[in-house]
Amino acid sequence: MSTVDTAPSSEAPAAARPRPKATGGGFGRYLLVRFLLIFPTIFILVTVVFFLARTTGDPITAAQGGRLGPEQLAELRAAAGYDRPLIVQYLEYLAQLATGDFGRTMTTNRPVVEILTTYGPATFELVFYSLIVAFAVGVPLGLYAAYHRDKAQDAIARVLAIIWYAVPIFFAGLLLKLVFAVWLKWLPVAGRASVSAELQMQTLPNRTGFYTIDAIQTGNPEVLLDVLSHAVLPAVALGLLTAGIFLRLVRTNVIGTLATDYVDAARSRGVAESRLLRKHAYRPALIPIITVMGLQIALLLAGAVLTETTFEWKGLGFILAEFLESRDFVAVQGIVVLLAVIVALTNFIVDVIAAFIDPRVRY
Amino acid sequence: MAVTATARPGRRWRDRIPVVHQVRQSVGLQRGMLVAGLLMLLVFVLCAIFAPLIAPYGFAQRADADGGFGTQQPPSAAHPFGTTVGGYDVLSRVIWGTQTAILVIIVAVLLAIFIGVALGLYAGYFGGWLDRILVVVFDAIYAFPSLLLAIVLSIVISGGQSNLWGGVLAAAGSITVVFIPQYFRVIRAETVRIKAEAYVESAKVLGAPNRRIVFRHVFRNATRTLPLIITLNSSEAILTLAALGFLGFGIEPTAAAEWGYDLNKAQSDVTSGIWWTALFPGLAIVFTVLAITLVGESLNDLADPRLRGRRRVAQSAGEVAETSVVPGGTLDAGPGGLTGLEDGETFDEHGIEVKR
């Protein structure tokens, strides 16, 4: 019975043949194979997105459908090259992508890559903060629930996790906004920073776009506080969903490890219960969290789209929603493909970390 | 373990009805969760069926005999949940919204099952190049944020359509494509496993045609885990529909009531302290997802002796569980891991793992 089922990296076993000896040079080889696997993944996603988006129509018809006459429409389509065979357009698109060109937006006529550099840091910050929330809330609660299995504490934790899952991020966001920003006025309603803080950061010689770093650069604690207070509600809204996932993951795995022989052995040796939980049961349960985090990145990115729209957090998701609103489907497709690349890269990094921690993954 | 999950022939009839059996099997908290979920689900379905009778107004109604409803009116006797910025009655739209939600669930899940199961059976049983391509493609799709894919698809499918069926089909279609990989993975994994079973081999020896083997022997056994995925997918369908609506791909208010659309319109209300336009449609989503999730969760736990209520299982399944639990922390999410809720991962893992 194989003990290792790396669920998220299902491609890995296909390419990397199981090796009897998975030590020493195994890691370097795994790294290489796993890295090379990024490309087919991206290629497939690009292909799927392209054909799904094109087979039933072109961006111009979709954007202008109904508003323009058929002749005007045909003219526009011809000008943009959408009247040529699909396969030609596809190959052209691939060639374009290979040179790092993700296309230009229709409405603002900016390169899609520029959108990444402008809005990417905001999304990264949001995802980072929400991961902190998820860890800080999910892991301890999961441990707690597992230890008190089938008791009231466990029941409450599990119901909480289900509720966190059932509340859509944007609804959670609206509620948080209503209570903490509008009624209690504790935290700002929306945005990444107040106008004055943003102005101070504008003057910085080497702005990073990561507001937290920029705020530290200004050396003004008020700016930092302002930036952080803006991040609280979005991070909580997005983080709680993931916290629920972590909670359940930790719970299930710790229950599993608590039942193992080595925990029994440790207990019989007189190891304290708290140490038992921390060292013996909790550690091995962390590995699946790291692997599952790869999948969570995809979920978090989707969640970021909704969170950013709710809180006017000017990141990739926010801008994606704006392009959706203005029916700029070239931009949407570009951003989606870009996000596909990000997802593939993160999955790679997560898999490498998992392999680094647990040699069994390497095959 | 398989014995506990499949109905034995000697059982009483009432044990063979799927959900009833599980309710009887469950204890304590698990039973509470299952029953609560079922009751909420019942309310949801009843609301959808009897919406025309329950709802005080139509979903696109802005005025009655006494004149217009007025916009953003706080809850009152005439409008218990208030009115929206567009002048619709919130309560009515919440109730009518159940119909849209149910329609989307049914269409999306049916389509996904049909396509996913067919492809999974084919790929798993016959293998070959098509199998390899499908696995690679679906794995790539599977790792991708499903909402983004749904967005791309809804652009394609709807392209500005906003009538009821156009909107429902757009939403359901987008959700379907996202779900197909899940069904495909589960069914394919099960099919590959079942193909090696002795009864399939003996059927082959007896000269049964492939078609018969696939439908009679493989299909009936491979679809055992489907109910769990269906419940989880249904809740995901609701969330995706609402998210699409929230991002502006909703169904127009004159065509049908859709909670995500209402929340989208309620965004600016919240900033000015108007709570009723956001709260009630949002609660409707939470309620529905909660109902489906509670049922799905409980069914999942009950299908897995490791997670079933400890007391009842301790004696009977303890030993079985011991041999099947991978010691030292498995690297998969593990049964009941919420990944299952997000992407169905748990179940194919579960499906394979349990049988080892």
From TrEMBL, chain A:
<feature type="compositionally biased region" description="Low complexity">
    <location>
        <begin position="7"/>
        <end position="17"/>
    </location>
</feature>
<dbReference type="Pfam" id="PF19300">
    <property type="entry name" value="BPD_transp_1_N"/>
</dbReference>
<dbReference type="InterPro" id="IPR045621">
    <property type="entry name" value="BPD_transp_1_N"/>
</dbReference>
<dbReference type="InterPro" id="IPR000515">
    <property type="entry name" value="MetI-like"/>
</dbReference>
<dbReference type="InterPro" id="IPR035906">
    <property type="entry name" value="MetI-like_sf"/>
</dbReference>
<keyword id="KW-1003">Cell membrane</keyword>
<feature type="transmembrane region" description="Helical">
    <location>
        <begin position="31"/>
        <end position="53"/>
    </location>
</feature>
<feature type="domain" description="ABC transmembrane type-1">
    <location>
        <begin position="120"/>
        <end position="354"/>
    </location>
</feature>
<dbReference type="GO" id="GO:0055085">
    <property type="term" value="P:transmembrane transport"/>
</dbReference>
<keyword id="KW-0472">Membrane</keyword>
<dbReference type="Pfam" id="PF00528">
    <property type="entry name" value="BPD_transp_1"/>
</dbReference>
<feature type="transmembrane region" description="Helical">
    <location>
        <begin position="330"/>
        <end position="357"/>
    </location>
</feature>
<feature type="transmembrane region" description="Helical">
    <location>
        <begin position="285"/>
        <end position="306"/>
    </location>
</feature>
<feature type="transmembrane region" description="Helical">
    <location>
        <begin position="126"/>
        <end position="147"/>
    </location>
</feature>
<feature type="region of interest" description="Disordered">
    <location>
        <begin position="1"/>
        <end position="21"/>
    </location>
</feature>
<keyword id="KW-0813">Transport</keyword>
<dbReference type="GO" id="GO:0005886">
    <property type="term" value="C:plasma membrane"/>
</dbReference>
<keyword id="KW-1133">Transmembrane helix</keyword>
<feature type="transmembrane region" description="Helical">
    <location>
        <begin position="231"/>
        <end position="250"/>
    </location>
</feature>
<protein>
    <submittedName>
        <fullName>ABC transporter permease subunit</fullName>
    </submittedName>
</protein>
<keyword id="KW-0812">Transmembrane</keyword>
<comment type="similarity">
    <text>Belongs to the binding-protein-dependent transport system permease family.</text>
</comment>
From TrEMBL, chain B:
<protein>
    <submittedName>
        <fullName>ABC transporter permease subunit</fullName>
    </submittedName>
</protein>
<feature type="transmembrane region" description="Helical">
    <location>
        <begin position="226"/>
        <end position="251"/>
    </location>
</feature>
<feature type="transmembrane region" description="Helical">
    <location>
        <begin position="34"/>
        <end position="55"/>
    </location>
</feature>
<keyword id="KW-1003">Cell membrane</keyword>
<dbReference type="InterPro" id="IPR025966">
    <property type="entry name" value="OppC_N"/>
</dbReference>
<dbReference type="InterPro" id="IPR000515">
    <property type="entry name" value="MetI-like"/>
</dbReference>
<dbReference type="GO" id="GO:0005886">
    <property type="term" value="C:plasma membrane"/>
</dbReference>
<comment type="similarity">
    <text>Belongs to the binding-protein-dependent transport system permease family.</text>
</comment>
<keyword id="KW-1133">Transmembrane helix</keyword>
<dbReference type="InterPro" id="IPR035906">
    <property type="entry name" value="MetI-like_sf"/>
</dbReference>
<keyword id="KW-0813">Transport</keyword>
<keyword id="KW-0812">Transmembrane</keyword>
<dbReference type="Pfam" id="PF12911">
    <property type="entry name" value="OppC_N"/>
</dbReference>
<dbReference type="InterPro" id="IPR050366">
    <property type="entry name" value="BP-dependent_transpt_permease"/>
</dbReference>
<feature type="transmembrane region" description="Helical">
    <location>
        <begin position="164"/>
        <end position="184"/>
    </location>
</feature>
<feature type="transmembrane region" description="Helical">
    <location>
        <begin position="274"/>
        <end position="296"/>
    </location>
</feature>
<feature type="domain" description="ABC transmembrane type-1">
    <location>
        <begin position="98"/>
        <end position="296"/>
    </location>
</feature>
<dbReference type="GO" id="GO:0055085">
    <property type="term" value="P:transmembrane transport"/>
</dbReference>
<keyword id="KW-0472">Membrane</keyword>
<feature type="transmembrane region" description="Helical">
    <location>
        <begin position="133"/>
        <end position="158"/>
    </location>
</feature>
<dbReference type="Pfam" id="PF00528">
    <property type="entry name" value="BPD_transp_1"/>
</dbReference>
<feature type="transmembrane region" description="Helical">
    <location>
        <begin position="101"/>
        <end position="126"/>
    </location>
</feature>
